[in-house]
Write a structure and sequence with these properties.
- This protein has about 180 residues and is α+β, with helices and mostly antiparallel strands.
- It has a single domain, classed as Roll (Thiol Ester Dehydrase, Chain A), CATH 3.10.129.
- Helices cover about 30% and strands about 30% of the residues.
- The protein is built from five helices and six strands.
- Strands 1, 2, 3, 4, 5 and 6 form a six-stranded antiparallel β-sheet that branches.
- Helix 1 runs parallel beside helix 2.
- The longest helix has 18 residues.
- It is globular and about 45 Å long.
Length: about 180
């Protein structure tokens, strides 16, 4: 089940936080609870992505994106993610999540999120996200104009560009495998 109470808590905790520029970093603090574990008694990989939600949504509010979504009847969707898992997170561990937009292209906004435990990075996720309307994807430039922030993206880091290029070579739709 989605952690609605945890999300409510994160939105409450960040309610008076200063606004951020679109590429600003939101930092949030979390704990790995018993219901976040997998069979090996460590943070479940799927739950890691859910915990990243708990950093991304308050970030969206602090940069003015939530207001723009509501005002225009837009939605927000994930169009891809690449994750690296490097350190175990175990029950009751405290973690800190850093969430920031690294830039955008003509269709997507790229979000970098990292999870830290005692000063060491446990995982990193690079998300491709899109703002949507009833007519399809809303261009990031239009989103920026609506928010009243920067219109031009910072240069995307090479590792982000490489991921975009590599992902573009994947066939879509994928081939069906034999049963």
């Amino acid at each position: 089940m989605y952690p609605f109470f945890r999300m409510t808590k994160e939105l409450y905790v960040s309610r008076n936080a200063d606004p951020l520029p679109f590429t600003g970093t939101h930092v949030s603090h979390h704990r790995c609870w018993p219901w976040d574990l997998d069979l090996w008694l460590e943070l479940n990989n799927g739950r890691t992505l859910t915990l990243f939600d708990l950093g991304r949504i308050p970030l969206a509010r602090r940069v003015g994106l939530i207001t723009a979504l509501r005002k225009n009847g837009w939605g927000l969707t994930m169009a891809g993610v690449s994750v690296r898992y490097r350190q175990r997170v175990r029950v009751m561990d405290k973690v800190e999540i850093h969430s920031r937009a690294v830039g955008w292209d003509d269709r997507f906004i790229y979000i970098d999120q990292t999870m830290w435990k005692r000063g060491e990075c446990t995982s990193q996720a690079l998300y491709r996200t899109a703002v949507t309307s009833k007519d399809g994807i809303v261009t990031p430039i239009r989103v920026m104009e609506t928010i009243g922030d920067v219109v031009e993206s910072p240069a995307l880091p090479a590792w982000v560009k490489n991921w975009i290029d590599a992902d573009a070579t994947r066939p879509w739709p994928p081939e069906r495998t034999a049963d």
